[in-house]
Amino acid sequence: MMWPLLIAVVAVVALLIARQRWRKKLRDCQQTAATELEKLRGDQQEAMQQLRSRQQTVFDSMTDGLLLLDAHQRIQLANRAFQQMFAVVADLRNRTVIEALRVHELPALVDSISSEKPVVSQELKLSGPPERWLEVNAAAILDGARDREGTIMVFHDLTRLKQFERARQEFIANVSHELRTPLSLIKGYVETLLDGAKDNPEVAAKFLQTVARNAERLRLLIEDLLTISELESGQMKLNLQPVALRSVSEKVVADFRARAAARHVSLNDEVPALTVLADPDRIEQVLCNLVDNAIKYGRSGGEVTLRARPEEHDLVEVGVTDDGPGIPAEALDRLFERFYRVDKGRSREQGGTGLGLSIVKHIVQNHGGKAWAASELGKGATFYFTLPMLQREEPRQS
Ligand code: ADP
User: Fold this and answer.
1) Model-level pTM?
2) Within a domain: residue 38?
3) Residue 267: left if φ>0, alpha if ψ -120 to 50, beta else—which one?
4) ω before 130 within 30° of 0 (cis)?
């Protein structure tokens, strides 16, 4: 009677113990699963973070600006080039394009994207300063169901290209203008000669002199233009060699003696014995242009002096000084631009092409030096340039 009862009690106790154990095991399993899940989540987050930062690095290394917008035109990503183009430093995430940039053309461009026209582009001018030109390409981002999820915009900076285009157009306009004046004078005088002026020898001689002067002006202009184009295209090969600066200055002074005397200008050569590494013909051209200007624009009855001295970094600084009217401060930086003249009438009257100093700058730069001017109004001007120095020549013992 007792045994069955005892067996039943033992069975119940065993079952209870087994249940307890299973519960614990189950709890342990759940715990392990939760920890594993947590770890997986952490790994996933880290992977996402890594992916995002890699993506950002790739986007930031692009030279074009990149902008990703969501369906409500809120910024989701802007790369570094974009931030630089629009000069924004603040965090742009979740701000709308119009809020963040105040460029009205952009929302309109995004709105113009449609299923028929999924990619649109437009040129954009940012008024600055500095004024900038951008080419903007925008395309829809579609989700799996081909619904519009957002927009990707790529900004390409066209500023340099536009500036180059503008400079080229200005150059062509300037050249045409410079050619037109002497040509129309030649044409006018030749027509008047043909109309009868040729029958009066005195008048004919005067007219022919004007024709010859203007033809010479055209020749000089074309020669200078060819030199500029050769210098700018990098086609001019320099025949570099050791050059005794003094031998060049003596030659230039001798060549300009007569011209200086005609304006009662005394030419002083104070260039010491220095050797530079240069193309002698090109350096002669530089000195000729500077001495010619100093005589032309300096004082009649004045003085023009050539000097040179060794400078830091193994350079020689050469200077051509006159005691003429000088140059206004605001013009100093612009003198070396093509066709820039302080006094247009004076330059043309003197047969100037407006290209002399631009040629000087290019030749000096091709030698690795630089050219500049200094002046005080009413007290003359000095034009400087530097060249690489080879050695200081010791004065010869006599
Ligand atoms: P240009 O053919 O007109 O002489 P340049 O390029 O040689 O052209 O010179 C540009 C301008 O710089 C000149 O038109 C002149 O106004 C100014 N300039 C050059 N040299 C001098 C100088 N020594 N003194 C005053 N003005 C000068």
Assistant:
1) 0.71
2) no
3) beta
4) yes
